[in-house]
């Protein structure tokens, strides 16, 4: 046991160093590429520029707002706070920021390993961590100034804490910790705020003591409320409204359901309408919510069609043209994802009786897919949920390899006889 622990630790150390090395090379390469491209600081400019400006405001002690008229509750502050560190310490160096984000990519590798340890075994955990460490899209996004990797790391931490509650249902510490970690993930992306409720519904089916599920959910919600309360209080101070997450869901919803919607994101209507010139940020959010639902009620078949188009964009193995510039890269990513999904489908069938394994590895992906049938679909929104999915793939590959080794050993013994 001690020898296995030493070997395991050594393997973890090696793979984390490899993961870091890969990401550092990508960070340097991406920065060199962007430096040689005139007037281009970000690979995906729109969202990245907004995050960078918000983080710069925090670092300079200026109000947390962007654009004119100012939008003060546009983005959750989790990722801008992460970016604040390299901006403040290294005077806005993009390369320093990418190196800093590479560390969060390595953290995601380790957290995937920890979750896999809870759901499977040491060999599977090591394999899952290697898959994450060397996955080209996950490694590449680790150094892009976008929130996907930080959200993936916080998502994995949240799933790990929820699984610990299932393993220790009578503990009071784990539910509160799970609430705190769920709130941290919500600070990265507001979509995660509902996931503890989905977990509680699942627990009602697997936990014989229903009252303990209610108690644990209450403790989770307390942990979330305490962690999110500074943001909620700040939002009330600047808007006079009780806003738990952000005020961008209304425009995002209308982006998905409007007369010109295609399933892809096209926010040109926001600039054309220019509602912020005459409305508060809260009123703009409410107005676009109403427009989106009104369109859906009046055009049910078109709305259904749009939901399907968004689902196709979400599940499509290869990125679309606006997401990558090279067809070769697109087909490479598509081929890799196709293989991954084939392995996952085989794993779902093989481990169909492992409800815990399937819940923690599949549910985030399905949850995001349903959510983005309302908003817009893209590979980017799928990526954070693919981290736990690799655990399922790793377990299938690990067990398949063990079965082959057993068969080979059996064949050798038979031949010897």
From TrEMBL:
Regarding the membrane, this protein is recorded as: Multi-pass membrane protein
Q: Which UniProt keywords apply?
A: Cell membrane, Glycosyltransferase, Membrane, Transferase, Transmembrane, Transmembrane helix
Residue ranges of domain Glycosyltransferase RgtA/B/C/D-like in the record: 77-233
- What is the protein's major site of localization? membrane
Which InterPro entries would you find in this protein's record? LipidA_mod_glycosyltrf_83, RgtA/B/C-like
Record's superkingdom? Bacteria
List all membrane-crossing ranges.
12-34, 95-113, 125-156, 176-201, 213-233, 328-348, 357-375
Any one cellular component term from GO for this entry?
A: plasma membrane
Molecular functions per Gene Ontology: pentosyltransferase activity
A single GO BP term for this record reads: lipopolysaccharide biosynthetic process
One Pfam entry name = PMT_2
Q: Where in the cell is it found?
A: Cell membrane
Q: What is this protein called?
A: Glycosyltransferase RgtA/B/C/D-like domain-containing protein
Q: Which organism is it from?
A: Polystyrenella longa
């Amino acid at each position: 046991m001690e020898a296995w622990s030493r070997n395991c630790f050594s393997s973890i150390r090696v793979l984390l160093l490899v993961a870091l090395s890969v990401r550092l090379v990508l960070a340097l390469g991406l920065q060199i590429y962007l430096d040689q491209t005139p007037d281009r600081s970000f690979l995906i400019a729109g969202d990245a520029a907004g995050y960078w400006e918000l983080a710069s405001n925090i670092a300079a002690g200026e109000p947390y707002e962007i654009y004119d008229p100012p939008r003060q509750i546009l983005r959750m502050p989790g990722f801008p706070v992460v970016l604040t560190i390299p901006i403040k310490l290294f005077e806005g160096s993009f390369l320093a920021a990418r190196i800093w984000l590479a560390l969060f990519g390595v953290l995601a590798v380790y957290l995937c390993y920890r979750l896999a340890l809870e759901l499977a075994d040491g060999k599977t955990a090591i394999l899952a961590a290697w898959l994450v460490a060397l996955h080209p899209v996950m490694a590449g996004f680790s150094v892009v100034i976008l929130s996907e990797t930080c959200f993936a790391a916080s998502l994995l931490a949240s799933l790990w804490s929820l699984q610990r509650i299932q393993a220790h249902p009578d503990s009071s510490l784990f539910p509160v910790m799970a609430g705190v970690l769920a709130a941290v993930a919500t600070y990265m992306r507001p979509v995660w705020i509902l996931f503890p409720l989905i977990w509680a519904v699942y627990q009602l089916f697997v936990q014989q003591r229903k009252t303990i599920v209610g108690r644990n959910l209450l403790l989770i919600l307390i942990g979330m409320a305490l962690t999110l309360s500074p943001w909620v209080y700040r939002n009330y101070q600047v808007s006079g409204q009780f806003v738990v997450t952000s005020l961008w869901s209304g425009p995002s919803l209308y982006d998905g359901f409007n007369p010109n919607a295609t399933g892809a994101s096209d926010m040109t209507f926001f600039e054309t309408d220019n509602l912020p010139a005459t409305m508060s940020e809260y009123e703009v959010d409410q107005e676009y919510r109403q427009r989106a639902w009104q369109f859906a009620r009046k055009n049910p078949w078109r709305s259904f069609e749009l939901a399907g188009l968004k689902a196709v964009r979400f599940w499509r193995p290869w990125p679309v043209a606006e997401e990558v510039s090279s067809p070769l890269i697109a087909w490479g990513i598509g081929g890799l994802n196709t293989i991954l999904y084939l392995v996952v489908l085989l794993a779902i069938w093989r481990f169909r009786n492992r409800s815990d394994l399937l819940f923690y590895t599949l549910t985030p992906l399905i949850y995001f897919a349903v959510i983005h049938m309302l908003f817009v679909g893209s590979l980017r929104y799928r990526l954070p949920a693919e981290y736990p999915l690799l655990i399922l793939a790793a377990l299938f590959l690990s067990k398949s390899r063990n079965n082959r080794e057993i068969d080979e050993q059996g064949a050798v013994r038979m031949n010897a006889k």
